[in-house]
Design a protein that fits this description.
Number of domains: 1
Organism: Pyxidicoccus fallax
Strand order of the largest sheet: 1-2-3-4-5-6
Number of helices: 9
GO cellular component, one term: membrane
Shape: globular
Order of helices and strands: EHEHEHHHHHEEHHE
CATH class: Alpha Beta
Number of strands: 6
Largest sheet: 6 strands, parallel
InterPro entries: AB_hydrolase_1, AB_hydrolase_fold, AB_hydrolase_sf, Epox_hydrolase-like
Keywords: Hydrolase
GO molecular function: monoacylglycerol lipase activity
Amino acid sequence: MLLLHGLFGEKDHWTEFSAALTPAHRVVAPDLPGFGDSSRLEGADYRYDAQVARLHAFTRAVGLERFHLAGSSMGGAIAAVYASRHPEQVLSLAFIGAPHGLPTPEPSPVEREIAAGHLPLVVTSHAEFERLVDRMFVRRPFVPGPVLAHLAARAVRDVPGDVRMWHAHRAQGPVVEHLLPHLTVPSFSLWGAEDQVFHVSGAARLQALPGHVGRVLPGVGHLPMMERPRETGEAYRAFLAGPPAPVPQGRRVQEFGAGG
C-alpha cells in the first residue's frame, strides 16, 4: 500500500498507524517532493498534476504495479487524482482524515480565518507552531520537547517557500469534488468529528462514491492516523480485509469511539 501525507507533512505521520498494517501488507510512505526530507526546488511545480506524474514515475521505479492508495488532506486529493488517472493500478482508495478539495457545507475555523485573509497553516514562530499543533488535534500525541523544537525551527525556516506552496495549493480548487463522479475503485474514509481544518459536515459528501464506507471519529481532529493510530490503523485493515457488511441507505457515515 502507498500512503501520502498532507500539506507541510511528512512520511513519519504514518509510522504508528502502519503498525496495524505491516503484518499483512508492504507499506510504502514517501516524503512527497517538496516536503519532509525530499528536496524543495525553487521554481518547481508542486501542484497536483505534477505530483501525480512524479508519483506515477515513483511507483514504476520501485515496482509497485497494483496497490491500495491512501492519503491525508493534501495527500487525499493527490490520491484521488491518481486513482482517477491510473485506476488499473489502484486496488482501493482511502481518505485517512478529510481530503483537501472537497468543499464542506459548513465552514471550519481554519476556513473562516482564510476568508479573513490569514494563512493559518503557515507559522512564523515557535509559539505559532505550538498553536498549529493544538489546532490539528483534540488530544495531541506526545512529542519529546527537543523534537518539537526541531520541527518548529524547520517550519519557521521554511516560511517563504511555505507561503508560495500555500497559495499554489489553494489555487487548485475543489479537485476531489470534481472527481467524485469518476472514481470507481472501492473507497474508505475516516473523518475527525472535531476537525478544525475541514468541517465534518463534508464527510457525507463522500457517500457519492460507489460502495463507499465512511466513519466519523468522535473526539478526533484533522490527523486521525496520528491522534488515534491504533484504532484508525485497525479500521483501515478491516476495510482491506474484505467487503464490509451492507450499510443501510443514508447511514453510510457512521461514528465509532475509542474502542474502534
